[in-house]
Design brief:
mainly alpha; 6 helices; two-stranded antiparallel sheet; single chain
């Protein structure tokens, strides 16, 4: 049998047809799924601070009531922050004359009572020179003022 002669123009036309077919397929947009946002990351980015940057200190209900109805008629946060400032100076406070006081344990209290103080005052109270726990330190300051051992 005789070999067929292959026309070089037919080979070229076939190559061009294959090239057109592949470019049309590639030019179609490829749709990929977007990754879903992780819930934890989205929640931490939009953290809302209800206390305007203030720190919370939990105290016993009795101490909160004493501070709430203070003789200086100051707002609760201002009163506690002033006590912290006065305690830092320490010249006006008679620590040794404090009379012991009893409080209801937190387990038996129905409602939580909190003081809101600025971060600066929170750090002062947290690292106090008496080396007391934060809650005990604040409660002691309130009781010292209540008993009249802090000079304003």
């Amino acid at each position: 049998m005789a070999k067929k002669k292959i026309n070089p123009l037919d080979i070229l036309a076939a190559k061009q047809a294959r090239l057109k077919a592949t470019t049309k397929e590639e030019s179609k947009p490829v749709v990929t799924a977007k990754p879903k946002p992780v819930a934890k990351k989205a929640a931490t980015k939009k953290k809302v601070d209800k206390n305007n940057g203030n720190k919370l200190i939990r105290v016993h209900n009795e101490i909160h009531e004493h501070a709430k109805f203070n003789t200086k008629r100051m707002a609760l946060s201002d009163y506690v922050e002033s006590l912290i400032d006065l305690a830092e100076e320490d010249s006006n406070i008679k620590w040794k004359e404090l009379k012991p006081f009893k409080t209801t344990p937190h387990d038996l209290e129905k409602k939580r009572t909190l003081f809101r103080v600025s971060p600066h005052h929170h750090e002062k109270a947290k690292f106090n020179f008496k080396r007391m726990k934060l809650q005990e330190y604040i409660e002691t300051l309130v009781m010292l003022d209540r008993q009249g051992f802090i000079k304003w």
